[in-house]
């Protein structure tokens, strides 16, 4: 037996009218305006949220002098670690939590921010791109490395190219600033600053610790496996050809925490 009022409710939903009775008000709607389901939560979402909570908690512990607040922040850090491990973090819970705790500083040095990497898209006079095969993964990519204290981002780009490949270069323009977690090429908070550069000299020589091979390649003869070429390849090769390429930046999500990547 249907619940009392069920037939009337279904009729009102179909007709888009409003019925009131016994203190209940049906919200007018039609089947054409049923709210869409929220987007599915992914492992990448969980990792991003856990890293954000971790940063808030560690920064809070770096600034607070209150024992009570510190205990609350430690609880938040525990929750963040649980979320990260459930989402597939490479470290186990008993490894991740101590790792986060060790990174807590005091005051401004303790303010947790994303890591910064600097990359260089280097082209030569033949329109080829400079790539190296990373010794840690066997994957091919343009020269890139962590930002070093005392260097500007463009100076890091020149330094990394020289150290990793033996090639001298000059910086031409900024190609983009990428959020590594948003783009899906890292599982840690990381911003990647990428410059277009022009080869000016030097001799190809792979860094003995960081690369197993290095070379210049035409667009139709790229080595494999090549990391993320579908994301950066088109703009990189266009810039090397001398075409005008506007610097890339990640458009703000709306809402920030549940918007599309």
What report would you give on this structure?
- With 261 residues, the protein is of the alpha+beta class.
- It has seven helices and nine strands.
- The strands form three sheets. It has a four-stranded mixed β-sheet with strand order 6-3-8-7, with helices on both faces.
- A hairpin with a 2-residue loop joins strand 1 and strand 2.
- Helix 2 (43-63) packs antiparallel against helix 3 (67-86) and helix 3 crosses helix 4.
What separation lies between the terminal Cα atoms? Answer: 47 Å
CATH topology of the largest domain: Nucleoside Triphosphate Pyrophosphohydrolase
Main β-sheet description? 4 strands, mixed
Count of separate DSSP helical elements:
7
Number of strands: 9
Roughly what percent helix?
Answer: 25-40%
**Which strand-content bin applies to the residues?**
15-25%
Radius of gyration: 26 Å
SSE layout:
Blueprint: H1 6-15, E1 20-21, E2 24-25, H2 43-63, H3 67-86, H4 93-102, E3 115-123, E4 129-134, E5 140-141, E6 144-146, H5 153-165, E7 167-179, H6 180-183, E8 190-202, E9 211-217, H7 229-240
Parallel strand pairs: 3-8
Antiparallel strand pairs: 1-2, 3-6, 4-5, 4-9, 7-8
Helix pairs in contact: 2-3, 3-4
Key descriptive features of the protein:
single chain, 261 residues, alpha+beta, Nucleoside Triphosphate Pyrophosphohydrolase, 4-stranded mixed sheet, 7 helices, disordered N terminus
